[in-house]
Amino acid sequence: MTTPVLEARDVTMRFGGLTAVRSVDFTVNAGEIVGLIGPNGAGKTTFFNCLTGLYVPTEGTVSYKGTVLPPKPHLVTQAGIARTFQNIRLFANMTVLENVLVGRHTRTKEGLWSALLRGPGFKKAEHASEERAMELLEFIGLAHKRDHLARNLPYGEQRKLEIARALASEPGLLLLDEPTAGMNPQETRATEELVFAIRDKGIAVLLIEHDMRFVFNLSDRVAVLVQGEKLVEGTSEVVQADERVIAAYLGEPFEGDPGEAEAAEVEAAEAAADATSSTKGEAK
Ligand SMILES: Nc1ncnc2c1ncn2[C@@H]1O[C@H](COP(=O)(O)OP(=O)(O)OP(=O)(O)O)[C@@H](O)[C@H]1O
């Protein structure tokens, strides 16, 4: 039986006149790795931001394990959804271990400020959390670098550390925004293994990625966003074989293209303008 972990219903996000995400229904089930792909500007990051409470969707709801989430990032994290960002957001001048400990603040009594200011309450909580943080560092392979400053880690390890910090909030769902951006092929392969291992720990994973081989290798299901709408959803095989997906990536129009109606309107307007100017030309 499939149990939904994340359910987005009819999510729409408008920025002024621009609809970046339009009426998207989307589910991630327990135990799944789901990929979200689409050409540049398709609305993937905007949709992620709606899921994690960074944006309040103009319409629609997002639920985690059957409960509608309030659109506030810390409450979303507390509920059980963790994320990484397209651009690394580590505390560069903190050690590897400290970065993971800060990630645990939603699971300890101490708040984020206490963690950052390292007050007495934090020190006690830190002691209790350290064991768990070290387990996570072992898991991602950075335990031997616990005392290194985050900024001194090579790029691939910084991305791993971000994942460890996200896992520190003990999520049931992990959202990864372009986890292999800037990685070399070995680092990408290692990340693939890491994502499988995270799933094997019982954490569902949703990832945005431009590296198609990575997405199709990993994902149980892939959803394709085009111009803010979900165009296709299915297994990697189904999505790869769908001509509309190929056309969308190549920028070619196709039947049912979300932009088809607008394109037809523009074409009609251009044709009308041409007709008017040629009539004027005839009148001269
Ligand atoms: N804060 C914002 N204000 C106004 N427009 C925005 C905002 N964020 C995104 N957009 C617009 O929404 C659309 C979708 O952008 P988004 O970044 O979500 O796409 P994406 O699929 O993540 O693209 P990429 O793959 O290039 O990261 C784009 O037209 C973008 O310019």
Explain the overall architecture.
- 44% of the residues lie in helices and 22% in strands.
- The protein is of the alpha/beta class.
- The chain has two domains: 4-80 and 171-252, P-loop containing nucleotide triphosphate hydrolases (Rossmann fold), CATH 3.40.50.300; 92-157, no CATH class.
- Helix 7 links the parallel strand 7 and strand 8.
- Helix 3 (96-103) runs parallel beside helix 6 (155-167) and helix 5 (120-140) crosses helix 6.
- The chain is elongated.
- The chain starts with a strand and ends with a helix.
- The model has no long low-confidence stretch (mean pLDDT 87).
- The site of adenosine-5'-triphosphate (ATP) has 11 residues, from strand 2 and helix 1.
- Pfam families: ABC_tran, BCA_ABC_TP_C.
Q: How far from one another are the termini?
A: 74 Å
Cα-atom Rg, whole angstroms?
A: 22 Å
SSE run: EEEHEEHEHHHHEHEHEEHHH
Low-confidence stretches: none
| Helical content class | 40-55%
Largest sheet: 6 strands, mixed
Strand order of the largest sheet: 6-7-8-3-9-10
What number of structural domains do the residues give?
Answer: 2
How many helical elements?
11
Shape: elongated
How much strand?
15-25%
CATH class of the largest domain: Alpha Beta
Bound molecules: adenosine-5'-triphosphate
**Overall mean pLDDT:** 87
CATH topology of the largest domain: Rossmann fold
Within CATH, the superfamily of the largest domain carries the name P-loop containing nucleotide triphosphate hydrolases
